Write a sequence for this structure.
């Protein structure tokens, strides 16, 4: 199957993320050009200002010479090759917009706006928290291995995540030696509609083991990972860990209205509002797997916008 434009653009981006260098327009391979132009259009890639006073001779690639304009034509006088014509495209350079990259990754992970991005070391950023674990972005695994202290002491809330591009040399599944979990960006993220989407680890396997024990807490299974709402779907609806945690927290408030931050801190989620973990990303719109939890949330949870409180009425019917 030929990769889509989005897939090719994402591979192009990941392959160049390992350092903050730039590349010249004409160095982009013809096969890569549609993907590259897509990245320019969504502003993932921006133009890079190079020092054009001295330019490497394109003929020999060895000598640099001063650029000048003669009769409206750009030239340089190479000591070896003589006068050589230079085209504008040979001077136009591009680089990945590092701010765009961090911003889109943060939004893919729904990190709270309250948490700022921190520079940990050269080429390593702490971009936020995901379900109470620290998420680091790094240019390479090697950069992280040189700054292992950046991972900090292992906290009770789980191993930090480290997002980097996949290096050319083969690595084992645990290159960080148990200090952090590695998320190769080529595999754990995708590009869609000008945004980055996160593919949650463990999501596909969860869908395979359908709970058959039936509802235990109101419409929810024992572990809150399933909700039984026959009006929406005959089969139980699978929930992500974060969605289950929000429903469990709401359940524990026995139908008493609560503010968003109270619910989210009880659920152990870093998102601001309960709805945040149910929102369907544009990439997944129309897919029942993602739409049904959102519909279940809307069916079960009432919001009082004026008071800023949330209540799950079905939890009021029990004392358990
Ligand atoms: Zn030359």
């Amino acid at each position: 199957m030929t990769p889509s434009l989005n897939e090719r653009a994402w591979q192009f981006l990941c392959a160049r993320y390992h350092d903050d260098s730039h590349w010249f327009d004409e160095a982009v391979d013809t096969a890569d050009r549609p993907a590259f132009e897509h990245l320019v259009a969504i502003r993932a890639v921006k133009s890079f200002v190079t020092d054009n006073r001295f330019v490497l001779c394109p003929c020999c690639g060895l000598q640099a010479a001063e650029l000048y304009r003669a009769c409206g034509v750009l030239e340089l006088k190479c000591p070896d090759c003589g006068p050589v014509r230079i085209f504008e495209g040979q001077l136009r350079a591009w680089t990945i917009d590092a701010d765009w990259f961090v911003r889109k990754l943060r939004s893919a992970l729904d990190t709270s706006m309250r948490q700022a991005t921190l520079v940990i070391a050269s080429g390593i950023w702490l971009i936020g928290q995901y379900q109470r674990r620290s998420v680091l972005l790094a240019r390479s695994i090697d950069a992280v291995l040189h700054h292992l202290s950046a991972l900090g002491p292992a906290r009770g809330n789980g191993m930090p995540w480290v997002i980097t591009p996949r290096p050319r040399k083969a690595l084992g599944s645990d290159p960080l030696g148990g200090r952090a979990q590695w998320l190769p960006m080529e595999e754990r993220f995708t590009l869609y509609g000008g945004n980055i989407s996160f593919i949650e680890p463990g999501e596909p396997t969860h869908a395979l083991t359908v709970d058959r024990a039936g509802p235990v807490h109101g419409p929810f299974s024992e572990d809150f990972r399933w909700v039984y709402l026959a009006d929406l779907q005959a089969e139980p609806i699978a929930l992500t860990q974060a969605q289950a945690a929000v429903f469990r927290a709401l359940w524990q408030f026995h139908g008493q209205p609560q503010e968003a931050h109270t619910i989210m801190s009880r659920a152990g989620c870093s998102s601001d509002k309960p709805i945040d973990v149910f929102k369907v990303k544009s990439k997944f719109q129309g897919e029942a797997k993602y739409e049904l939890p959102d519909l279940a949330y809307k069916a079960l949870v009432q919001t009082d916008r004026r008071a800023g409180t949330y209540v799950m009425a079905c939890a009021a019917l029990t004392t358990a």
The chain has three domains: 5-96, 98-200, 204-317. The longest strand covers residues 64-70.
